[in-house]
Amino acid sequence: MAPHMTLAIIIPVMAFAVWRRVRRSFGRQPIRRKQMIARIAIFSVIGVALASSGLANLRLLEGLLGGAVGGVALGLLGLRLTRFERDASGADAYYPNAWIGGLLTVLLVARLAWRFLVAMPQLQDPATAYAGPAMGNSPLTLVVFGLMIGYYIAYYAGLLVHHRRFERAQAAATPTA
Questions:
Q1: Beta-bridge mates of residue 92
Q2: Is the pTM of this model over 0.85?
Q3: Are 92 and 100 in contact (CB under 8 A)?
Q4: What per-residue confidence (pLDDT) applies to 132?
Q5: Contact 140/56 with Cβ under 8 angstroms?
Q6: Using alpha carbons only, what angle is made at residue 53 by residues 49 and 55, rounded to the nearest 5 degrees?
């Protein structure tokens, strides 16, 4: 596939993914346990895949693990800043901290945009056009991916735990007839 066609496909897909990510960072979000568990599993698989590919170059693995540790710390901070509520119909929801989610999204988009700008000369050269840019060959890029992976695994796992506690507290506070 020609490089410009690849970009014509990748850019709209990435824009849609960023839009969905931003939408989940603001306002009231319903608790969807199965989707949260699926996201934890998906991010775990991506993390393991990136870590196993980073075994060939320890700098890449260090970047990923360092980012993941930072992401877990941000996830725990995000949990402390998250509010839970139950509306009149009994549906549970949470309000995530928009600053943390927004910051991670901007960081990811900025890093990917930078990597694409750096890779553009490679895409213009017909000899290397089909080899494609190696998006994960930078420790800094893997730090950003590690931040995202660590944050969302810790955040969604923490949401599940805190939601269970919230349900128990709501059940204890509800008077029985």
A1: 86
A2: no
A3: no
A4: 46
A5: no
A6: 120
| Number of residues written out for the chain | 177
Tokens linked to 64: 């990923």
Range list of H helices, the chain: 3-23, 33-53, 58-80, 98-124, 139-173
What whole-number distance in Å separates Cα of residue 133 and Cα of residue 121?
A: 10
Asked whether the beta carbons of 47 and 64 are under 8 A apart, the reply is yes
Q: What residues contact 116, with CB distance under 8 A and at least 6 apart?
A: 133
Amino acid making up residue 17:
A
Q: Is it the case that residue 1 has pLDDT exceeding 90?
A: no
* Cα 110 to Cα 114: distance, rounded to the nearest angstrom: 6
Residue 53 pLDDT: 81
Question: Residue 126: which region, alpha, beta or left (left: phi > 0; alpha: psi -120 to 50)?
Answer: alpha
* Vertex 101 angle, CA 99 and 104, to 5°: 105
Q: Which two tokens stand for residue 3?
A: 């490089």
Most confident range (mean pLDDT) of 49-58, 71-80, 85-94, 134-143 is 71-80
